[in-house]
## 1
Amino acid sequence: MQFMLLFSRQGKLRLQKWYVPLSDKEKKKITRELVQTVLARKPKMCSFLEWRDLKIVYKRYASLYFCCAIEDQDNELITLEIIHRYVELLDKYFGSVCELDIIFNFEKAYFILDEFLLGGEVQETSKKNVLKAIEQADLLQEKTEYHSKSFIGFKKAY
Amino acid sequence: MGFSGGGWSRNLETHFQKVRMVAPSLKLQDLIEEIRGAKTQAQEREVIQKECAHIRASFRDGDPVHRHRQLAKLLYVHMLGYPAHFGQMECLKLIASSRFTDKRVGYLGAMLLLDERHDAHLLITNSIKNDLSQGIQPVQGLALCTLSTMGSAEMCRDLAPEVEKLLLQPSPYVRKKAILTAVHMIRKVPELSSVFLPPCVHLLHERHHGILLGTITLITELCERSPAALRHFRKVVPQLVQILRTLVTTGYSTEHSISGVSDPFLQVQILHLLRILGRNHEESSETMNDLLAQVATNTDTSRNAGNAVLFETVLTIMDIHSAAGLRVLAVNILGRFLLNSDRNIRYVALTSLLRLVQSDHSAVQRHRPTVVDCLQETDASLSRRALELSLALVNSSNVRAMMQELQAFLESCPPDLRADCASGILLAAERFAPTKRWHIDTILHVLTTAGAHVRDDAVANLTQLIGGAQELHAYSVHRLYNALAEDISQQPLVQVAAWCIGEYGDLLLEGNCEEIEPLQVDEEEVLALLEKVLQSHMSLPATRGYALTALMKLSTRLQGDNNRIRQVVSIYRSCLDVELQQRAVEYDTLFRKYDHMRAAILEKMPLVERDGPQADEEAKQSKEAAQLSEAAPAPTEPQASQLLDLLDLLDGASGDAQHLPPLDPSPGVALVYLLDLPCAPPPPAPIPDLKVFEREGVQLNLSFIRPPENPALLLITITATNSSEGDVTNFICQAAVPKSLQLQLQAPSGNTVPAQGGLPITQLFRILNPNKAPLRLKLRLTYNHFHQSVQEIFEVNNLPVESWQ
């Protein structure tokens, strides 16, 4: 996989994972064009399209588009499964995930993706293992974070 | 105590300001809410700029406690498109921190903000090294993830030893990540293959799906990069077969399954590797045959997961040396996919069948009816593929049925497919027409349905076809007359009809034709129709040329007196269009001064042989025509001489070449090559086109063909196009090549390129280069544009070497 983009129906980017080195400018250009192309697709069209020299696989879940760019020799149908698996992972983690969850917890969305794919390839095919890894990392984070208790009361007063 | 207004609130304000400066910064979620609350873009920008200022200040102050929060906020605004480069150094600091929270956000920041273009990226190498060697597993995971996402070649070289060590770690969590990191490293630094190849065979014995998957991905990467690695890994084919077999038969584990299919991700990856290993290798292919058959027949196809595996299986079967029965099975699976209600499945089926149609033609033929049904798809990308595939499936036994379907499709297909459909039908008709009459009918139908979308040579082809079928002259002229009477807007149709009426007007008036209902046409009606074409604003200049010439020819074919014709010809002597004017003058002169020669000159065209020597007839025609005009005989055939001899070439209109659509003496050569190309991948790599000239919207392109059966021959087609607002007229292109080569110019398709993308002029050059001498080509263009005469002489640069080597 070369990259994965998540964006809303208004074209707002919610997540961007690039597995190929590109300048910020190029990324922005690609994102803009691809978002436009995908949003222009009618609902009854198939999930695949050819764009530049890549194959694009996209699927809409509620208000979010999940869009992956794969290479010529990659299997489009299994990419659909990859997208679906990612959505399932998000769903399990957030409990009935919706776009707002991904907006307000975008770092978590990245962390989950990074436990499922690595360098653009699938690293773990067991849902259980992925979720377990995230859970452990979250626990670790909680343990080592310290709270600035002294200011909380102050803020609440005003 | 009461609140006394003024003084109290002022104090409160300053108090607030102080509070803001020392209060904890906005939480990420609060910032997000604030941004989303902004009603306008400007407001959003304001909020973000204010917050970024705070973040910058915080970075400057070096507050370690909240640094991770500040960076997280920065990453959020970065996603919205705002600049975040000042956070790069903070990523470094966070990664170097010992707190897990810091590292988590720091590494995320590195992946989003740093890349190999920034020198800063190298600075994290040391932190990564430390984390890889000393960190706890989650930290090692973060480091590996970051390395495999944005690791540059230098970083990869530096850190390869660390990653290599981690391949042998007991923890599967870290190992699976290390393996995929190795994949990335090899992509960046191919020499590292030697480091990561040895552990692979051992890793294949693992049972952890993640490790297996990573290993197979790694082996795939190694094999794709090195033939030696490929040979090396062929020995694991039996093992791979075993792994897959176990997965498919007994490996049902809910943890890894999707819709009852065991770990489809792993299956697909194994199948992909098997494909690479089995390609061009009998032995390996044989080892996998049974397994492939098993997977192909037993995989559950009710859901996408199973179909994904099946699809990969089909791809593998078709790419290796599989048994014939297996190949047929694979094609049949694709045929079934075509009937699937899921249009994604239909899409991959069409794409794959298109790739197979040449190699496994008869197997794909069996699914022709289903393919044809797919023409009705509402999704344009599917119907386009269905069209390409349908065209590729036309053969002599199904041509009538297929053409019927395709013609029906042409009538209703989306506009962007029209041109391809029309030219596809015409090509197929060329190849497989069962009878000439059927052929004529087919072309006629295409011209009436999609006349605007046909290629330029359709007119030439049809007239040639009709000309060569004497028994069908009457039939053709009747049908064309009827079609013309109904609609004079489709230019190619009008041109052919005009030509035909001109040639065979006498047959039209006789009214006998068994094949269609007798129709009574009288002379005045015919003349009126041609005049209508002449006067219509819809007619292109070339079309009007055809009409005028046809009228002229009728002067010898009709019984009545020629006053009407003479009148029309006379009127056009002062036509603004220079082309038409010239013709009219010539024809008028023919009436007035050379009346005794008129009949001979306007005689019917001799029967045209497709591959025969046309040159004689052509020369005869043109010689006679030459006596009329001052111009030199056409087609010009300049001797292949020194480049400077271009200026010796005679100036002059090849106006009479419009008498007749250019008769290509050997259309066979160019046409045969084109016909071999419907949708198949071009056999010898096609030579890229070359744009050689551009001036004020007038462009000249060269396209090259080297017919495989004649290596000394090079066919160049020049195409002159005009995107400007003014017409290009009297366009003449002359060419010269070095002495050791022979050049022949065919008559051009015309001398006018109408404005704004009007019908281009094409001309064929034949160059014989038996000694494979380096090709040089000098061109001289003369034409009128924007009321100025233009002359350009230039040598063509950047001629592709494939054109002469």
## 2
Amino acid sequence: MLGFGADRLRADMNRLLALLFHQGVLDEQFLQLQQLQDETSPNFVFEVVTIFFRESEKLLRNLRGLLLDRELSDYKKMEIHLNQFMGSSSSVGAKRVRNVCVAFRAASEQSNRAGCLRALELLEHEYCYLKNKLHELFQLEQQRVMAAGVRYPIQG
Amino acid sequence: MHLTTDNMVRRKEVLESSCEQRARMLQDQFSVSVNHVHALAILVSTFHYYKNPSAIDQETFAEYTARTAFERPLLSGVAYAQRVVHSEREKFEKQQGWTIKTMEKEPSPVRDEYAPVIFSQETVSHIESLDMMSGEEDRENILRARATGKAVLTRPFSLLKSHHLGVVLTFPVYRTNLPPHATAEERIEATTGYLGGAFDVESLVENLLGQLAGKQAILVNVYDVTNSSDHLIMYGPRYPDGDMSLAHESKLDFGDPFRKHLMICRYHQKAPTSWTALTTAFLWFVIGVLVGYIFYGAVMHILKVEDDFHEMQELKVRAEAADVAKSQFLATVSHEIRTPMNGVLGMLGLLLDTDLDSTQRDYAQTAQACGNALIALINEVLDRAKIEAGKLELEAVPFDLRSILDDVLSLFSGKSRQKGTELAAFVSDKVPKVLIGDPGRFRQIITNLVGNAVKFTEQGHIFVQVHLAEHTKSVMAAKANACLKRGSDEVEVIASQTQFNTLSGFQAADDQNSWENFKLLIADEEFCSDASDNWIPTGEDSESVTLMVSVEDTGIGIPFQAQDRVFMPFMQADSSTSRNYGGTGIGLSISKCLVELMGGKINFISRPKLGSTFTFTAVLRCQKNASSDLKKSPLEAIPTGFNGMKAILVDGKPVRAAVTKYHLKRLGIIVEDASSIKMAIGALCGQNGHLRSGNGKRPDMILVEKDSWISSEDGVLPIRFIDWKQNGCMLLPKVILLATSISTTESDKAKAAGFANTVIMKPLRVSMLAACLQEVLGMGKRRPQGKEMMKGSALHHSLLHGKNILVVDDNMVNRKVAARVLEKFGANVECADSGKAALMLLSLPHKFDACFMDIQMPEMDGFEATRQIRLMERKENEKIKTREVTYEGGSKTEWHVPILAMTADVIHATYEECVKCGMDGYVSKPFEEENLYQAVSKFFESKPI
């Protein structure tokens, strides 16, 4: 019974992952990330994603602050933030977030304030979606681990 | 224009001169006549008045004047009129016997004086007795003549008889000799008569002009211009036509100062539009136009060419830009496609992990296979794009060519066995054991060529040969010479053969690979290897060797019309090819690029339905001290347990025998040939029976080619062989069957014939051959089976295991992931979050074996950090050189930590940029295992620490 539950949870996880892949939210880098997780670092994915969330929220905050500044926005600084964001999002395989970052950067390169604001909103939306979905995934995983009683490395 | 004016001037001059000529002639003639009339006057005065009685009467006068008429060609006639005053009229009339008449032939009315004609030339006899004073013109003339004493002329008037225009010339005749300066009254007083003559100007001028050439051309008018306002015409039409534009006036002096005459000449016709002038002018015009046109054309052409040139230049720039853009686009797009494809494949993997029924599994597996094929294609496209963008660089690592060929053969062995085609590789002994080059790319080329060959070959063979290019060339030249010498009888032999001396007996496209040549190549080789055991680099160019690799197949060949686009990307022989055989046709173009990168050339000979032979050359470097490095290289070592063994090879086909010999030789086995089993056993018997001493070693094995076995009377002889075996002759050699494919019945038969479990399936490969032989000879395996599994990630493990690696990235997530990847490969990883921190950690001395550096970092980017690290290292190295600093054991002689750039952008962060600031390479971010391995292997493989 316990084993069956674990299998079902595993199937759910796979379904969710498949959905995220299908939607283009995640890409293969996320699978690579999962492959890096083994006995020596059993919570690697979770750790990385947590760092990613923390960093991203900081970056989002900064970006919003820069954009809402009444004075002329500091596009240079914005680009640095966006490069950071792009780097980390491509590392975790957050594809849609990364793509929005690319658009955001293009807008900021052109000093297009309206475009930047639009991109920021989109970015926040994408980020929230990703965060929710990944949380869901981690919850499933936790349940699965608990259900299985043993932790297996997720194999792609 | 000039010519026309010139012509006009000339015309004018001609007119002038001819006019003058006419005028002078007329004048001369006139004056001659006038003089003569003068003479007549003197004659009359002398003989009529000074003589008494008069010596002249009408008769005399008429005769004299008639006889001297030639002197006065201009005068129609002359006459003498006597001055008769009225008082003397009666006396005179009586004396003469006629009355004085007027011009109208009527008796003259009473006048002061009369001037009746008394003598007249016969031509004008009608005017005799006419009173000259009665005619108005004559009267004026007479009055003027006697007053001046000179010849005077009337104005032109119509003459009496002829009604021609004419003038009358009148001379006065005086009674006495007058003093030279007599007054007019004295002259009038002294006048006794008048001599007159009529000039018939019209006919006279006509006559005169008739004597001159060109009278038609020139129109002559003679005018009396005494009254300057009213020109009286003497000759010529009243209203002259002709060319009015040009006229010449010549003055005429007829000896009468009172009268002025003028001659005006005109051309009868308008300027005879001179043809030469016209044609030359036209020609000049045409020439001018032509020259102008040529000039214009030239200028236009130059302009056009210039325009075209600019346009071309622009197009070229655009094309180049487009090409670069295309390559970049391809690279980027391929990369972008690869990412989701990996996702798809990953998900398919996940899917295959789940519970699936067989159909679903089949579907998923098909999808995965297709995905893999697509990824392979994308990688190929990426390769091509990279090559085109000049971004593909070749590695230079030591590798064993022979094992690469073995690998490739093993890759295709399944397929070739399925089809029953023979697949073989042969590497000349002259090719060095260890070469330095890019094994991956070399393998890629050969795999592509062999893959194509296998794909398109249904029967026959695929034969890969590697020789030294120089050697092949010299042997081929020698062979060509020999062929020329030997002449035609050999040709006959070849023509009559039904079996070809190739690997499988099928005819191949390139005859050069048939046994005749191959024999020469090998023979030469054996000779060489006798002379010197090891391969000795030839000549001064000892660093590099040029290999010639040929892949021969007996497949369907390439249609002639498609042969010139074989190497074009995405071009296939025809559409049916891709339908029947699949494939994209990009492989060959990549192979071509790669071969060119290796400094070689690729070409092929193909004959439809016979097969194709692809040949390429590649320049590789050879390892200098081959033996010492061979052990270090992670190459598969060849088992040495067979060294010195002896084998007899039974094979009717010399090429195939040579290939088998080549593989056996690699194991150190000495091989003897036998063309049939009979011969082999004969040799064996000889050895067994009569103890052929000398080369006393007994063969350890007999290898029999399946064809030879089948053809040798259904294995009768092997049965004899088994008999021996059963007789307990334990020292008998092992008998091994070599086969490409073998059916169950055949294998049963083989077992029955004594080849139990000793069938070696082709294609031959050293490792496989060794394994089989070990099994047959009972030598036992020396290497654990699992060792071959140790490739792949295990290799990375060993590569990075225990290495201290520094990861520099400002992005925490990236840092974490990169560190984790490297840790997974067994490295000890430390992290730094900025260029400055990295500098601190890398301050000398440090323990790091390598550094992965992010390029985009705030404050100090990767390039800058690398520059500073290199600067630091240089300073330290200087110190080491000057022995200021020494490290324990003096092991460190130079500091150079490998720095690898991490970049998210494969295309933009070019290799050169990294190299410029002192980096050693780059890896793409996020890390990919293969990419990472490639980058890292450069440092840890070639530089054993």
